[in-house]
Amino acid sequence: MDHSNTNAGAALGARPPNRCTWRAIPPAGTIAVSLALAVIPGPALAYIGPGAGLGAIAVMIALIVGVLLLVVGLVWYPLKRLLKSRSEAAGTGDQKATSDPE
């Protein structure tokens, strides 16, 4: 039997020839198909019961109200303090003018 065609070097730890056939970057077609499958929605075929549905609606309303209150707190109260300090400054000037008998 002729054993000249067997790869005896591979068993001894020799490196196989460098025949890399895979690509590090997938082709554009693969990327386009993957993107299309990720973007195009499919039917969920799921049921949300009334309890979970009302809970989800309540959470959304709470988030909207929370954001609105955050805006009010960050904008209205400093503005209110600024207006109050201006009115007090104008009010003290008027009081000095009216309290002076001369």
How do the strands and helices of this protein lay out in sequence?
Layout lengths: L7 H4 L16 H12 L10 H50 L3
Mind explaining what this structure looks like?
The chain is mainly α and 102 residues long. It has a domain at 52-80. The chain starts with 7 loop residues before the first helix and ends with a helix. The chain has helices at residues 8-11, 28-39, 50-99. The mean pLDDT is 78.
The largest sheet is: none
Helix content: 55-70%
Spans of at least 5 consecutive residues whose pLDDT stays below 50 are none
Total of DSSP H or I helical runs spanning 4+ residues: 3
Identify the quaternary structure here: single chain
Strand proportion, as a percent range, falls in: under 5%
Please count the beta strands (DSSP E, at least 2 residues each). 0
Determine the N-to-C terminus distance.
Answer: 133 Å
Rg measurement, Å: 38 Å
Q: What is the residue-mean pLDDT, rounded to a whole number?
A: 78
Quick structural overview:
With 102 residues, the chain is mainly α.
Jot down its keywords.
single chain; 102 residues; mainly alpha; 3 helices; 65% helix
